[in-house]
Amino acid sequence: MKRRILVLLLSIFSSCTLLNAQNRDVNPLMEDVRARFNQVKDYEASARIKIDVDFLKIPVKQGKIWFLHPDKVKVKAPGFSLLPKRGMNFSPGQLMDAGHTAIFVRDEILAGNAVSVVKIVPGNAQSEILIATLWIDSKRKVVRKVEATTRNEGTFVMDFTFKPIAEAYDMPTQARITFDIRKNELPLGLTGDFERAPEEKGKKNSGKGIVTIDYMDYKINQGMAAAVFGKGR
Amino acid sequence: MNLLRFELFKIFCKPRTYIGFAAIAVLVPLIQIALYIDGQTYIEFSLQNLKEAFDFQGELLNGYLASYIILATLYVHIPFLIALVSGDLLAGEAASGTLRLLVTRPISRTRLVLIKFAAAMTYTAALILFMALASLILGILIMGTGDLIVIRNTIYVFSESDVLWRLLSAFGFGLVAMWCVASLSFMFSSFASNSIGPIILTMTVIISFIVISAIDLSVFRVIKPFLFTTYMGSWKLFFEEPLALRDIWLSTGVLGLHILVFLTVTIINFKRKDILS
């Protein structure tokens, strides 16, 4: 009998907690994040780009990265570089369009930071992102992690690292983009190379690609990106 | 040294010697110009699948890529140009009736073979050097320099500063491979009394070995390590990261050993040969 009462009490308690969690209004938090994001109209930064894909060996590139509000991103590095299509142009503004639905999932600790996990379904039916999960630092009002499922380009995960102490614009010092690579995205071949090198034994394609971008020397809201993207664009 | 100079003089007096240089002088600019005009489409076609996942920044078409493509395309055909001269060195003398006269001179047969062999190696080196310089200088003049992309099972992108030494090393390795071809045709030349036989035989051996290497059957896989053509393509190892130094040395060693064996067989055969023509 005692056991039954205990189970009943526990069930009621957990249901209430879950209900409370689902009902928490995350819109103020989302608005704060959007407001912080909207502060940055443009920036220029030095970038160090490291690409880690099983079938691709490319040296670490040093270059410049420009951002123009709301979602234009351009990267320039000397020589040749490959940048993932997935995640590079991501901005929270894309998700927080009119009519989006934000659902609070839970609070958790992510790399030592208290974050709120929020699921977002964009309001625009034509949106490239179908659903996304954001890990939002409720204290600093920044997005620390994004996991997004897209219409045509699979899933990508973005992990952001920030300076330990918040600054005026609180821009990330590092972005780590993990994205899917489908088998049909392997290149056909070049150079009339008839002999293919034998496959290395035990070497398996993980089907994932990781691009790590380290940001340095931010120049924020100085109008530098406008020139790069061209006026009126 | 005088004898070598004389032997080289004889080689460079023959019109066939210039066929190789002429072929390279025509082919290399032709490939470079074609790449300059249509190279971008060619690269985009090769990388079209990759474009689904990545945005490309910067130019890939440059003189380094052109040189790499030339090296990859021509290494199958250059042996013919080399056999054309080295296959003629002993057999040509026999055919023209000067071999008997040559061996009457106060010089050992071994020394005579060694001098002719050195001349064949010099000609091969000159041809490969010409090819390397033509493809690099012309390529850089037409398309400039830049990063190099190499696609095998893995895609390698090498920084501009990291490419030239790899290309020069690859051409250097290519030279060793072509020395091996020259030694083979020189060896066949010692058995023949006209130069057509050694040239055709050399090409037959090379084409057969390449075909055997290309067909991925278990029987051929057993034979493959014993074919010198297997190691001829090892210049590509210079375009891998990390550098497979052990494999490069192994390939160089195997080719060197083949050169030594072919030369030894030539000397033994030539010393025993009854020269009747």
Structure, described:
The complex is a heterodimer of chains A (233) and B (277). Chain A is of the alpha+beta class and 233 residues long. Chain A has one domain (23-228): outer membrane lipoprotein receptor (LolB), chain A, CATH 2.50.20. Chain A has 4 helices and 12 strands; from the N terminus they run ααβββββαβββββββα. Chain A has a 10-stranded antiparallel β-sheet. The N and C termini of chain A lie far apart (72 Å). With 277 residues, chain B is mainly alpha-helical. Chain B has one domain (2-272). Chain B contains 12 helices and 3 strands. Chain B has a two-stranded antiparallel ribbon. In chain B, β2 (148-151) and β3 (155-158) form a beta hairpin.
Summarize the model shown.
The complex is a heterodimer of chains A (233) and B (277). Chain A is an alpha+beta fold. Helix content of chain A is 19%, strand content 41%.
Provide tags for this entry:
heterodimer, A: 233 residues, alpha+beta, outer membrane lipoprotein receptor (LolB), chain A, 10-stranded antiparallel β-sheet, 19% helix, 41% strand, globular, B: 277 residues, mainly alpha, two-stranded antiparallel ribbon, 12 helices, 3 strands, 4% strand, elongated
What number of structural domains do the residues of chain A give? 1
Helix content of chain A: 10-25%
Regarding CATH, which class of chain A?
Mainly Beta
Characterize the biggest β-sheet of chain B.
2 strands, antiparallel
Q: What's the CATH architecture of chain A?
A: Clam
Give the rounded overall mean pLDDT of chain B. 91
β-strand percent of chain B reads: under 5%
Sheet with most strands: strand arrangement of chain B? 2-3
The amount of beta strand of chain A, in percent, is 35-45%
Order of helices and strands of chain A: HHEEEEEHEEEEEEEH
Low-confidence stretches of chain B: none
The first-to-last residue Cα distance of chain A is 72 Å
CATH superfamily descriptor of chain A: Lipoprotein localisation LolA/LolB/LppX
Given helix and strand content, the structural type of chain A is: alpha+beta
Shape of chain B: elongated
Mean of all residue-level pLDDT scores of chain A: 79
Could you give a short account of the major beta sheet of chain A?
10 strands, antiparallel
CATH fold-level name of chain A? outer membrane lipoprotein receptor (LolB), chain A
